[in-house]
UniProtKB/TrEMBL annotation:
Domain HTH tetR-type as annotated: residue spans: 9-69
Listed Gene3D superfamilies: Tetracycline Repressor, domain 2 (1.10.357.10)
Keyword terms of this UniProt record: DNA-binding, Transcription, Transcription regulation
GO molecular function list: DNA-binding transcription factor activity; transcription cis-regulatory region binding
Chain residues forming the annotated DNA-binding region: 32-51
Organism of derivation: Caulobacter mirabilis
Name of the protein described by the UniProt record: TetR family transcriptional regulator
């Protein structure tokens, strides 16, 4: 390699590292060539000569992030060692994993999260994310393989951790979150070891104090200005993330003045919060809405699988894509909460009762042979949202076999 090649490679590495830091701080949408040039003290022309355009920078950065994360997982597995785990040791190990990946220094993990959460992606993203998720699942399967009966949980645990990782990054060091997350994770690990589910006092305490928000659009007249504003904002949130919603973007989409939102809501934060809940409730299928019991007979396994598969498929009516959109909402809010503390309470409102609707609605949705405890509902809810994110980002078709396997591994059978 010539001196020129060495210098060019070093310069490219500096740009990639700076891009990773900027994405961790401002998100993938916030990455601009101008900010990147300022960060490395070069002109945008230098960056274009190295990478072609922003898409080239993002691809090089994402591949570098994958390499760093692969090295992290390799070191993590080596540190775990080839030993059979007891319950407490495995609980500590998984907790350590979540804490590691919430650290500000783990910018490579943030790059992966940004790519998973994106509703639109670059041409290279799907194939890279396939490698990424395969690597994570293989790591956890290897770690668990040395403990009798746990190897089967490697894939399920890796998928469960996808969404919990988002929550941990947004809510780390918040005691209420850590207690609730510990109950969820503890319940999963107890279940893996064949133990019965314990009560969930921390979760129950939060849920007892939690006021379930109503659907903001339910009481609004069709065609009303307030509903139009909520619809426009919800569309923007699902398409581009929470940070895309501004007074100007929503007002422009509706064709009204920028003072209209202020007329209907006390401030922009209240409006965005209502828009987020509107995005959740408007796409929620009736069979998942605990506020509106269907009154139908409990489904058999085939019907349950059909209903769940709909939530993992491309967006559409009848519940199609519900968990994909919901998981992206959660991911976007958690990423925003890392940058803006004002979103942390909203992230906590989503995590605290995680799986609560599934649990309340269990008699309408789950076949009779499943014993859906509160902890089981939480772990299945986190798993299916992780599955929704991964499947959508990688282009993997939803699989009935994966759904059935996850349910069998996460939820006990009635005796």
């Amino acid at each position: 390699m010539t001196e020129t090649d060495t210098s060019r490679a070093a310069e490219a590495t500096r740009v990639i590292n700076a891009a990773m830091t900027l994405v961790a701080e401002s998100g993938l949408r916030g990455l601009t060539l101008r900010d990147l040039a300022q960060a490395v003290g070069k002109s945008t022309t230098v960056i274009v000569n190295l990478f072609g355009a922003k898409a080239g920078v993002v691809e090089a950065m994402a591949n570098a992030a994958y390499d760093l994360d692969e090295a992290y997982h390799r070191d993590f597995a080596a540190e775990a060692g080839d030993v059979a785990f007891g319950r407490d040791a495995l609980f500590a190990l998984v907790g350590r994993y979540l804490r590691d990946r919430a650290l500000p220094s783990a910018a490579f993990a943030r790059v992966r999260q940004e790519m998973l959460a994106a509703s639109t992606s670059y041409d290279f993203a799907a194939s890279l994310l396939v490698r990424w998720e395969t690597m994570r699942r293989a790591t956890w399967t290897h770690i668990l393989a040395h403990t009798p009966r746990l190897e089967a949980y490697g894939d399920v645990l890796a998928t469960y951790l996808i969404v919990e990782e988002f929550y941990a990054g947004a809510l780390a060091e918040r005691a209420e979150y850590e207690m609730i997350a510990a109950e969820g994770l503890g319940g999963l690990i107890d279940h893996m070891f064949g133990r019965l589910d314990d009560p969930t006092p921390a979760t129950d305490r939060y849920v007892d104090r939690f006021v379930i928000p109503g659907a903001p659009g339910d009481l609004l007249e069709p065609g009303s200005m307030k509903l139009k504003l909520l619809e426009a904002a919800a569309d923007q949130i699902l398409a581009e993330g929470v940070s895309a919603v501004t007074n100007r973007s929503v007002s422009g989409a509706v064709g009204t003045s920028t003072s209209t939102i202020a007329y209907h809501w006390s401030d922009m934060r209240a409006f965005v919060t209502d828009a987020l809940w509107h995005a959740v409730f408007r796409g929620m299928p009736r069979y998942l809405d605990h506020r509106r019991p269907s009154g139908d007979a409990r489904p058999d396994d085939a019907r349950w699988t059909e209903l769940m598969l709909l939530t993992l498929q491309p967006d559409g009516p009848g519940g199609r894509g519900f968990y994909v959109n919901y998981a992206r909402l959660i991911a976007g809010i958690c990423l925003e909460a890392r940058r803006n503390p004002g979103f942390r309470e909203l992230a906590m409102m989503l995590r605290g009762p995680e799986g609560g609707g599934t649990y309340v609605n269990r008699d309408d949705l789950w076949p009779t042979h499943f014993d859906l405890t509160r902890r089981a509902a939480t772990r299945f809810a986190l798993w299916i949202k992780g599955e929704a994110l991964a499947a959508a980002a990688t282009g993997r078709a939803p699989s009935p076999a994966r759904l059935k396997q996850a349910a069998a591994l996460l939820v006990s059978e009635r005796s």
